[in-house]
């Protein structure tokens, strides 16, 4: 195991050891290797700069993407509109934009950073929402809805933490042609909207805990490369805001929620994530500590924050006077948490699993888990094949599998294969004359292209088994790819080299704000500055030789 930070710069060594000692002795988690930290490249001018893509797509009205990019463009199957012009490895940014559009998740919109979420994307969101909503209800969280608009007065109330975010707040200044007397902000998050009412509703210990959640949209006027799902100016999320009598209850909930976020990523989206605690610098300014799940995109070499669960401590309670009287009649301040995950989850899923044929959807979140395609030949019993397709869908649907048949007569089977591959449907079933004669179907997996003939007698069990295997395989492959990018290291030279190689770095860490700023400053340049992701709760096994 890594036991010390040994940055080779002389001036640094002493400082780092000092911090290391300090952290080692902290009361937070004594004896644990809390000083290992995951770093990656910071967003900046870099590998997946998609600003250019957005401009071009907006200009072309969307839908037609055969523009040039440094002579690297490949025009494929232009006549049918099928296929992608860019490969994932050659031009990740263009590939991503094309996949989300051709896969029918996104339509570009005429306001930069805003996107239309089409039913194919929303159905994924709804499946995750159904799971998460049921889980938080088990925890006695209640849903609510607060207004979209924020008065400048309350927004100012938490000016200390809003300061850094102020440029991203969008304002309504007019109604019709007349200027509003007081401009109104559009919520970028709802602390200031909700907490004045927490102050009103919480009086005594019997009003606690107060656990509210809302499913809504928020607006943050981002300026750096807008990217569908990943960084958009308006996005969908759930935001949970809870208040407790004790810190212990708040601490427990932070981790319960984080576990649900892990579940969404790993068990629904088949994406491995790391649970951990954010650095001082990356902690939400209004909070006490921030935990997160962090995913990794091998193609960009960047980590990406998947979701956050904050313990706010009593900072907001102080600001908004959220007080209560305990059993003994003593006055106290509440302990608060807030937590959120957003439609970013869908973007991470596309980036991790998508391939050169388009989207690859994990069965658990796919609106359609299986598509049945008739493959009639000239003299074949076409009606018999169509009937078999309809019967197959009925059998599978009755068993709870999301299945449909593509019986359109204006497209060839080959065209349909490509179309459903582009949309990422996990399993395709083909039924041709030979299948009909043998009372079987042919199943083709989207994740690895494997073909299996299945007797219609065992259809449901076999299909269920295959969907489970696809789900597991997507996770295993994503984990292998991520793990292959992890570099455990100790020295500054190793750090800089690994950063340039798009690695996910696990390095000893003291968690001092100044040191993190310094690391950022010293890694600024073409490759983009290093950004800390988290101190993993579970310190991963070190590879051999370390
Ligand atoms: C942008 C503009 C204004 C992030 C912002 O993570 C304010 C903010 O407060 C802002 N961007 N944040 C932090 C959000 C913290 C917190 N809110 C509730 C969460 C979870 C859900």
From TrEMBL:
For this UniProt record, the keywords arranged alphabetically read as follows:
Aminoacyl-tRNA synthetase, ATP-binding, Ligase, Nucleotide-binding, Protein biosynthesis
Annotated GO molecular function terms are: ATP binding; proline-tRNA ligase activity
- Its Gene Ontology biological processes? prolyl-tRNA aminoacylation
| Catalyzed reaction equations | tRNA(Pro) + L-proline + ATP = L-prolyl-tRNA(Pro) + AMP + diphosphate
Name one matching Pfam family: HGTP_anticodon
Q: Which GO terms describe its cellular component?
A: aminoacyl-tRNA synthetase multienzyme complex; cytoplasm
UniProt cross-references to CDD domains, sorted A to Z: ProRS_anticodon_zinc, ProRS_core_arch_euk
Q: What is its EC number?
A: 6.1.1.15
The Aminoacyl-transfer RNA synthetases class-II family profile domain is annotated at 147-362
- Cite the NCBIfam families for this sequence: proS_fam_I
Give the protein's recorded name: proline--tRNA ligase
Q: Which organism is it from?
A: Durio zibethinus
């Amino acid at each position: 195991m890594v036991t010390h930070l040994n940055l080779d710069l002389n001036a640094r060594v002493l400082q780092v050891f000092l911090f290391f000692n300090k952290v080692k002795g902290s009361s937070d988690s004594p004896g644990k290797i809390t000083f290992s930290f995951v770093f990656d490249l910071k967003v900046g001018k870099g590998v997946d700069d998609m600003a250019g893509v957005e401009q071009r797509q907006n200009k072309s009205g969307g839908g037609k993407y055969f523009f040039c990019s440094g002579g690297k463009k490949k025009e494929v199957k232009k006549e049918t509109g099928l296929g992608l012009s860019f490969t994932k490895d050659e031009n990740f940014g263009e590939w991503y934009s094309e996949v989300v559009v051709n896969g029918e998740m996104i339509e570009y919109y005429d306001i930069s950073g805003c996107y239309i979420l089409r039913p194919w994307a929303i159905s994924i969101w709804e499946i995750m929402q159904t799971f998460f909503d049921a889980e938080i209800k088990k925890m006695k969280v209640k849903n609510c809805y607060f207004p979209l608009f924020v008065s400048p007065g309350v927004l100012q109330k938490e000016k200390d933490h809003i300061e850094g975010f102020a440029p991203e707040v969008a304002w309504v200044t007019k109604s019709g042609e007349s200027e509003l007397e007081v401009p109104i902000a559009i919520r970028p998050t709802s602390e200031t909207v909700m907490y004045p009412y927490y102050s009103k509703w919480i009086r005594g210990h019997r009003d606690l805990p107060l656990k509210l959640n809302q499913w809504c949209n928020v607006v943050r006027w981002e300026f750096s490369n807008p990217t569908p799902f990943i960084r958009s100016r308006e996005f969908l999320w759930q935001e949970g805001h809870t208040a407790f009598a004790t810190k212990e209850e708040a601490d427990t909930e932070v981790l319960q929620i984080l576990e649900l976020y892990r579940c969404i990523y790993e068990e629904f989206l088949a994406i491995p994530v790391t649970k951990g605690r954010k650095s001082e610098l990356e902690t939400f300014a209004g909070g006490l500590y921030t935990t997160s799940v962090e995913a990794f995109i091998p193609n960009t070499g960047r980590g990406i924050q998947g979701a956050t669960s904050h313990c706010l401590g009593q900072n907001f309670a102080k600001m908004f006077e959220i007080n209560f009287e305990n059993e003994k009649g003593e006055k106290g301040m509440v302990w608060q948490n807030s937590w959120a995950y957003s439609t970013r989850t869908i973007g991470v899923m596309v980036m991790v699993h998508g391939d050169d044929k388009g989207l690859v959807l994990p069965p658990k979140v796919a609106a359609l888990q299986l598509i049945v395609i008739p493959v009639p030949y000239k003299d074949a019993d076409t009606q018999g094949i169509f009937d078999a397709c309809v019967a197959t869908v009925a059998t599978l649907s009755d068993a709870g599998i999301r299945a449909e048949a593509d019986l359109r007569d204006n497209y060839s089977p080959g065209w349909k294969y490509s179309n459903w591959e582009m949309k990422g449907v996990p399993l395709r079933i083909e039924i041709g004359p030979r299948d009909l004669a043998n009372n079987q179907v042919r199943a083709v997996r989207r994740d690895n292209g494997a073909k299996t003939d299945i007797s219609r007698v065992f259809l449901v069990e076999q299909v269920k088994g295959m969907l489970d295997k696809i789900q597991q395989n997507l996770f295993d492959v994503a984990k292998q790819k991520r793990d292959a990018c992890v570099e455990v290291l100790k020295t500054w030279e190793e750090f800089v080299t690994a950063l340039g190689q798009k690695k996910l770095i696990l390095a000893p860490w003291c968690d001092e704000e100044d040191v993190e700023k310094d690391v950022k400053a010293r890694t600024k340049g073409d490759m983009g500055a290093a950004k800390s992701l988290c101190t993993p709760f579970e310190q991963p096994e070190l590879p051999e030789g370390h």
